[in-house]
Write a structure and sequence with these properties.
Layout (H helix, E strand, L loop, with lengths): L10 H9 L15 E6 L2 E6 L11 E4 L1 H12 L8
Pfam family, one: DUF397
Protein name: DUF397 domain-containing protein
Length: 84
């Protein structure tokens, strides 16, 4: 039985993303406090490097390009400015 919490993402794609090599931002200082990113099969995953590397499932969030594009568009429009 898979522990995949994403019902619309195939189990094999979920596992690939959870265990993928995630890239850190160019501005990363290497202190383990950044969000890293990877993609495969039309999905984009983010991992929080502050969380335990042994529990990659808990630190992985997966999105479609459309979901990410909608978020970026809202961010550019200032929708989340009140949060910072």
């Amino acid at each position: 039985m898979s522990s995949n919490p994403y019902h619309d993402i195939p189990d094999e794609v979920y596992e690939q993303l959870v265990h993928a090599e995630h890239a850190a931002p160019a501005a990363s200082t290497g202190n383990g406090a950044c969000i890293t990113v990877a993609s495969t099969d039309g999905y984009i995953s983010f991992q929080d490097s502050k969380l335990d590397d042994n529990d990659r499932q808990a630190r992985t969030q997966i999105y479609t390009p459309a979901e990410l594009a909608a978020f970026v568009a809202d961010a550019k429009a200032g929708r989340y400015d009140h949060l910072i």
